[in-house]
Amino acid sequence: MRTGQPNTQRALLAIAACLAGATASWLTKSPFGLLAVVAALYLHVDRRAALLLRVAWGLAFVGAIAVHFHAHDPQSAALSLALFAVLALCIGEIVAIPSSAKLSADAVQAMRIIESMPAYTWSASPDGHITHVSASTLSYLGELADKTGLFHILDNAGWRRAIHPDDYAQVMEIRRHSLKTGLPFDAEYRVRGSDGTYRWFRSFGSLSRDEQGELAGWYGTMIDIEAKKQAEDALRKSERQLQQLIDAVPALIWSTTPHGTPTYVNKRFKVATGASLEDITAPDGSPSLSVVHPDDRAAAIAAITHSFRTGEPYVMIYRQLRAGGAYHWTETRAEPLRDDAGDIIQWYGVSVDIHDLVTAQEAVKESERSLRQLVETLPAMIDCAAPDGEPIYRSRQLREFLGYNLEELDGNEKGRLEATLDAGVHPDDLDGVKERYAHSLASGEPYARRHRLRRFDGEYRWVETRAGAMRNADGAIVQWNVICLDIDAEVRTQEELRMAQAELAGASQAASLAELSASIAHEVNQPLAAVVANSHACQRWLTADPPNLERARKTVERIIRDANGAAEVVSRIRALFRQSLDKRNSAELGSIIAEVRELMSEEAVRRRIRLDIDVESAIPPVKVDRVQIQQVLSNLIRNGMEAMERAVGDRSIRIRLDRIEDAVRVRISDRGPGVEFPDRVFQPFFTTKESGMGMGLAICRSIVESHGGHLWAEENEPHGASFIFTLPIEANRVT
């Protein structure tokens, strides 16, 4: 029933009309005044009561007519009652006409609205029978309504055909419940379309009442939610895949509320730790961290509380409980998820088992400690350098030897390597050391050299330094490892031994020479004595009067015989210095020079003399006795060193090898005082040395000439001397 101010006014008017009609009927003694009451009843009763009133007025009219014809009285009361009933019926129809017209107009308007809606609409009677289905619904279902039973196709069997079999029972149960209780009908189910495919719909309907409060029927709509269902299925599939991914990730994943209350742990977390979500949640809702080792728990709680309070990321390494009772080192990280306003809506964390990594790191650290102790306790000085040679580490022994730490070299214009060499290496050795270092750094070849190094107390001590390159898998140098040994005592001992050996060799040579001289004198003395005696005899025979020529001739023959015997002795002595051709082989003269330089290097360093070698390219090999040529080179180089014993300035010996026509030429030049008698120095027993025997250069020339070559001396400008010898490239012949 409608409510509001217009209905109140109509009620008051109806009451007034009823009073006026009743008063008129009483004053006129006629029932027609009650027609106002009849009109008021029609206006305020529902349709069922109005129908009953019409039936009552119809019966009253029929009864009044019958009574009137039986009474045969034109003015009878029955006639008046019949007329009243007719007027009441007319008044009822007149009152109903505007309402029906209005209802028809409203129905048409409602139908237009419903048909224009982008939805599938329907209506049913209060007892659930379909009374209307929109054209769009029928079009989707592919059904055509006939005129005799417009909507019977959607009742009973029709619904069974349209609704998916798996959904039908549930839909009917919801429908029966709504019809029984009058509660709205709301269900989601699949409906078959005209093409035979099923789509998801949501059907919603509610029970409506008319103006009088009577049940008017069910009105509802069906909304196509296929896209929504597909989206929900895709979302569920995505969530399932995400869950599978989370469970498959080799990490323990968890989440909390903005305030820290745990909300989720993945399957791997439960399996690994043996703890559930409830186990890691404290009674007050905070994370209990019960799976964290007791010794690490306080620090972990402080760190995560700080993150929850400030919003800063959480990072912590601690020992975490495992299901078997053991604790594993674990790295845990957590980041907050924020909304568009920047407020934290969730914390997400991940815990990764790094126990093997931590264990390996501890093993590496222990190994490093052992290696460092080994390096620090080795009786050697260790140095490590970057690929460019700059030192990056020095052992304790080296630091103590030098008297300063590596870091003290920083801050100046020089690099660590250059500063170390300039401050520590002896000035006479510095250029050679730098040159060798530069060569090794440029070529990657190992470094090996002996030189003098300044100790912390200022004393220079002999050291032997060796360096090797450490390379990666690609062959690139990643570090130089250097070892330095203090060999000062060894060098001094070797020098003393060398000097003793030299003295012993000199004494031995003197003794041998004396013995050789005595032997030569003995061997030569007899034929010479015979020559002298025979000469005197020949003289006597020739001076006799008369001269005895026959005797003199025989004496001369004996003189010739004895002289040839002396010459034979000399030839046998010379044969001692001549070698057999069978010992000569083809060799690179440059390699022989390099070997001699290596043999003479220690003596050169001791004498503070630099050996420079200049070998021309493409020098062909020569056939030589390698040992004899080494003797020649050693003798000539040593003579040059001894000649520069008192020289000042540049103390160097230059050895140059080149080719001239069909021979190779070796020039050994020094910067000494020069050769005073260049023509006599090769004569046996001629010497300018106080302790010399004058045999070295003679033997050298004899060896060179035995190889088919020549040896001579030249003066240098402005001072110094050069000893030059040549050897033929073709096969040598003994001269």
From TrEMBL:
<feature type="domain" description="PAC">
    <location>
        <begin position="447"/>
        <end position="499"/>
    </location>
</feature>
<dbReference type="InterPro" id="IPR036890">
    <property type="entry name" value="HATPase_C_sf"/>
</dbReference>
<keyword id="KW-0418">Kinase</keyword>
<keyword id="KW-0597">Phosphoprotein</keyword>
<keyword id="KW-1133">Transmembrane helix</keyword>
<dbReference type="InterPro" id="IPR000014">
    <property type="entry name" value="PAS"/>
</dbReference>
<keyword id="KW-0808">Transferase</keyword>
<dbReference type="Pfam" id="PF08447">
    <property type="entry name" value="PAS_3"/>
</dbReference>
<keyword id="KW-0472">Membrane</keyword>
<dbReference type="InterPro" id="IPR035965">
    <property type="entry name" value="PAS-like_dom_sf"/>
</dbReference>
<feature type="domain" description="PAS">
    <location>
        <begin position="367"/>
        <end position="444"/>
    </location>
</feature>
<dbReference type="InterPro" id="IPR001610">
    <property type="entry name" value="PAC"/>
</dbReference>
<dbReference type="InterPro" id="IPR003594">
    <property type="entry name" value="HATPase_dom"/>
</dbReference>
<feature type="domain" description="Histidine kinase">
    <location>
        <begin position="519"/>
        <end position="731"/>
    </location>
</feature>
<dbReference type="InterPro" id="IPR005467">
    <property type="entry name" value="His_kinase_dom"/>
</dbReference>
<feature type="domain" description="PAS">
    <location>
        <begin position="238"/>
        <end position="311"/>
    </location>
</feature>
<feature type="domain" description="PAC">
    <location>
        <begin position="185"/>
        <end position="237"/>
    </location>
</feature>
<dbReference type="InterPro" id="IPR052162">
    <property type="entry name" value="Sensor_kinase/Photoreceptor"/>
</dbReference>
<dbReference type="Pfam" id="PF00512">
    <property type="entry name" value="HisKA"/>
</dbReference>
<dbReference type="InterPro" id="IPR000700">
    <property type="entry name" value="PAS-assoc_C"/>
</dbReference>
<feature type="transmembrane region" description="Helical">
    <location>
        <begin position="48"/>
        <end position="69"/>
    </location>
</feature>
<keyword id="KW-0812">Transmembrane</keyword>
<dbReference type="Pfam" id="PF02518">
    <property type="entry name" value="HATPase_c"/>
</dbReference>
<feature type="transmembrane region" description="Helical">
    <location>
        <begin position="76"/>
        <end position="97"/>
    </location>
</feature>
<dbReference type="InterPro" id="IPR013655">
    <property type="entry name" value="PAS_fold_3"/>
</dbReference>
<dbReference type="InterPro" id="IPR036097">
    <property type="entry name" value="HisK_dim/P_sf"/>
</dbReference>
<protein>
    <recommendedName>
        <fullName>histidine kinase</fullName>
        <ecNumber>2.7.13.3</ecNumber>
    </recommendedName>
</protein>
<dbReference type="InterPro" id="IPR003661">
    <property type="entry name" value="HisK_dim/P_dom"/>
</dbReference>
<feature type="domain" description="PAC">
    <location>
        <begin position="314"/>
        <end position="366"/>
    </location>
</feature>
<dbReference type="InterPro" id="IPR004358">
    <property type="entry name" value="Sig_transdc_His_kin-like_C"/>
</dbReference>
